[in-house]
Amino acid sequence: MCLIASISDLITGKIKVNKIISIGGWVRNRRHSKLGISFINLYDGSCINDIQIIANNKLDNYKNEILSITSGCSLTVKGQLKISLKNIQKYEIYATKIKILGWVKNPGEYPISPKKHSLKYLRKVCHLRSRTTIINCITRIRHNIALFIQNFLHKKNFFWISTPLITTLDTEGSGKMFRVSTLDLKNFRYQKNINFFKKDFFGKESFLTVSGQLNLETYACSMSKVYTFGPTFRAENSNTTRHLAEFWMLELEIAFTNLKSLMKFAEKMLKKIFEYFLNFHKDEIIFLSNKIEKNLFNKIEKVLLNKFDIIEYTEAINILKNCKEKFSHFITWGDDLSLEHEKYLTNNYFNNSVIIFNYPKNIKAFYMYLNNDNQTVASMDVLLPDIGEIIGGSQRESRIQFLDKRLKELNLSKDDYWWYRDLRKYGTVPHSGFGLGFERLLSYMTGLHNIKDVIPFPRTPYNAKF
Ligand code: 4AD
Ligand code: MG
User: Fold this and answer.
1) What is the tally of structural domains in the chain?
2) Do 206 and 198 contact (CB within 8 A), yes or no?
């Protein structure tokens, strides 16, 4: 087979007009005119555009095959690239040869027929949904944003650290972890007072990680600026539009940095991502504005242009307590904010993106830096309108005596955290970091309200079919 061109190369003018080229793709739809000409729209996933193939009845397989083509068929096409006479698309291909590689069996039953499908329906056919323009589009955005972020960090002297997915520690202390075990559960007999995990693969109770942060901190304390980007697992039974059991998180960790600088960096990074998206994804934004969220461009631009409001947790609680809004949960100092509270602050009160910092220590993880008031920790959450928390982070407790005190308060074993404590014993430095939920970011940017639509194969309670 000769090397085929991508539709993206044709559309962006990388291939000269009138050249004979070969392309491969799948049929979006086709129309056969009575004059013996067929118009076939082909996509190959390389860009948002399809390309129109013009096939006439002089082709040897016109009657036998081309007239039977239906949407979903896979083809290779050889032909001449021409400027389109109609304005709908810039280029088209006059086919000299069309080879059908794969037919669609029972076209009436093809799950991705050209009619409009709801996103909900598409979740039931995850293995085929990337054939739709919308999921195809989201997938390219996901790829580009992941590359952009890593390039951005690379330019700022961050190193990518591959942190482990299997761990024995519950970083966030939520207890919502998936067990990793090779014990034979089917023939398992429980015996009191026996530590059966000793016999397990790792000789210890082990889990899929909820965050790579603790391991990442070890490298921050030697390489200064580091990040990790990978899947993260939470066995939370929350079937919401914002939660996945397996999601991708970008976590970064910076040495010699306190909470204030971290908050600045988080805002700057988010704005850089949005700026890149607006500048380099115009076609996608127009497409998504037509299909999904009308004001997508303005929404993103607003985050980009406005300075985030930065308030202390205590101030946030005062605002929420004194406002007239009827929340389903009345909130007082010491409570965690739920989405309705976050949304009130971003959408109503500030009409802006908001960073809340200095949360009470009792609602945050053990590793956060204790403030002088002994009640709050140097933590922060970045909230965007509608979606709420998108980033969570903190300055880390770098003082061994404070860390040990906190471990004790939370009934956590010092022995389990011996290596984490070593960082504080040997050349400790102030350091800070945050985690950005990658799918929450994509959901916000694309307007696809349900997080399940921005990851290829979502994992949620009772759903790991594909
Ligand atoms: O706030 P979280 O739990 O923070 C941490 O895990 C820290 N260890 C991060 C760090 O400081 N290195 O999670 C960070 C972000 C959240 O703000 C949210 O965007 C996303 O991860 N997130 C989820 N996204 C999808 N599904 C879930 N179940 C999520 N849980 C958290
Ligand atoms: Mg959080």
Assistant:
1) 2
2) no
